[in-house]
Specification:
The strands form two sheets. A four-stranded antiparallel sheet has the order 1-8-3-6. The chain has a four-stranded antiparallel sheet with strand order 2-7-4-5. The protein is an alpha+beta fold. Helix content is about 50%, strand content about 20%.
């Protein structure tokens, strides 16, 4: 669990051993059962997490009150409701485990403390925010410019485990298609068409 997290940190910034040890004091393990909420809509997000095992979905409620999945977060990445976590304002996004999930969680105050103690944490925060922005930009571009099959193939390439853990409804919501269209796409992909 800890070695995967250290590898993740070192892949994003040149962490010294002392910085890694400081981090280990601030991140606490947490288990979520499938369907358990990590960040509830309407609350201030006070935690961020590294996903050790499992996956989460990020969603919002549209004008009709229907859930729209905007992101899947798989093992090996950091996640939070970024705007809420950074600005400490209520979030319009919810994060929920789509399977049993193991996290390493850090509170906002502890994260701020790490930022104040070492410039390497500022570098990590900047790289994580850049990465999140690029993912959001790519998602928006795909939704606007690609067909449903291309969206599905990208999801299959980027996070294949999600296709086995998320429900058909969640995947269809993420892709912006109906369940029927998703079933047709899955058949086409399986048949190599």
């Amino acid at each position: 669990m800890i070695s995967n997290f250290k590898t993740f940190l070192q892949s994003h910034a040149p962490f010294a051993q002392a910085d890694l040890e400081a981090a280990m004091q601030c991140f606490q393990p947490r288990s979520l059962r499938k369907g358990e909420v990590f960040v509830p809509i309407g609350k201030v997000c006070r935690e961020a997490a590294f996903i050790v095992r499992g996956s989460l979905k990020t969603y919002y409620l549209n004008a009709e009150g229907e859930e729209v999945v905007s992101c899947f977060c798989a093992a090996g990445c950091m996640t939070t409701a970024y705007r809420s976590f950074v600005q400490q304002v209520p979030t319009e996004l919810g994060l929920v485990a789509i399977e049993d999930t193991e996290l390493l969680v850090i509170g906002h105050d502890d994260f701020q403390s790490l930022l104040a103690k070492s410039p390497i944490w500022k570098e990590l925060a900047l790289r994580l925010l850049e990465s999140e922005y690029l993912k959001m930009e790519q998602y928006a571009s795909i939704l606007n410019n690609e067909g449903a099959k291309e969206k599905y193939l990208l999801l299959l390439h980027q996070t294949p485990n999600v296709l086995h853990t998320a429900t058909v409804t969640e995947i269809a919501s993420y892709l912006g298609v109906t369940r029927r269209t998703l079933s047709r796409i899955r058949r086409e992909v399986a048949n190599g068409s």
